[in-house]
């Protein structure tokens, strides 16, 4: 792999397992790598801890980029319209733009942690000075390879997987499954409350948006949470029956980390 001085080498971390494993994998291969993390200001404490642990392992600082306008500032300009799958302004303004601003006009190689067992494209900047490369794909590193890299480095999987969350990114990310909302409430009730507080009519125009198809006020009712837990458990049983050779690590964690294309935002959750 070339490391010419005139070209910058940049690895953008999400706080997820794949980009973290890639940082570990590239540490000795590209000594002048710049590691960056775009902090939306709404990250889970677990993600921030994981990034700090990675810094210790790498022996170098991960640059935190932020935007002048916070999530709440942008939300105000949008009249309280929460982001969603169809209105994903958050990724563009809080993740993609800071990346392009950070890179500027200099030539850069952008290292992306898409694995060999994944069939997806990922974020590729359209700026001509940014060239994306996919070392895991090139070197045949799959899900199990990523887990091995993380274990060998002593980091393991991101800490939020311990309580059943599958994704990095904002604690209120609309991509999370209902079971992940339930677990957010159980493990970070204050963050759940903060997410719920966004589901109020906008003070200026009265518009009301929800993070998902069900208000969090409804989802948090004990009987509804029990129902979500039960549905999730049945789905897991069916999946286990269909795939008896599922990797042990994901069985133990009760997670779908190894499932095919993930429903989510690649740049936030890689
Ligand atoms: S994690 Fe989710 S809510 Fe946060 S910026 Fe990414 S897509 Fe938007």
UniProtKB/TrEMBL annotation:
GO terms for molecular function: catalytic activity. SUPFAM superfamilies: Adenine nucleotide alpha hydrolases-like (SSF52402). InterPro entries: PAPS_reduct_dom, Rossmann-like_a/b/a_fold, Sulfate_adenylyltrnsfr_sub2. Residues 9-119 form the Phosphoadenosine phosphosulphate reductase domain. This is Phosphoadenosine phosphosulfate reductase.
